UniProtKB/TrEMBL annotation:
Name the UniProt record assigns to this protein: YlmC/YmxH family sporulation protein
A Pfam match: PRC
Source organism superkingdom: Bacteria
PANTHER family: SPORULATION PROTEIN YLMC-RELATED (PTHR40061)
Organism: Pseudalkalibacillus berkeleyi
UniProt xrefs under Gene3D superfamilies: PRC-barrel domain
Length: 85
């Protein structure tokens, strides 16, 4: 699978079967020493009233349960979430 093919897949909470969203943009953090993908980083922007909130969700690659043809199964409790205005 090419990295470009991961975009457009639905992100599913594998513990609840709940759709979390569609991956439209992502960054991959690569371990240069080992040469493997360390983290999938997904930036999100939400409007909260009149303020724009930027959130970054990071999933360690070894905590992504499965990348299928149309979905990516993750456990949100294993994610690192950072929000700022």
């Amino acid at each position: 699978m090419r990295l470009s093919e991961i975009l457009g897949k639905e992100i599913i909470d594998h513990t609840k079967g709940e759709k979390l969203g569609v991956l439209s943009y992502a960054e991959f953090i690569i371990d240069e020493q080992g040469g493997y993908i360390h983290t999938l980083e997904i930036p999100l922007t939400e409007w909260n009233g009149l303020r724009k909130r930027k959130t970054t969700i990071q999933f360690r690659w070894n905590k992504i349960y499965r990348v299928g043809e149309e979905t990516i199964l993750v456990d949100p409790s294993q994610a690192d979430i950072q929000s700022k205005y």
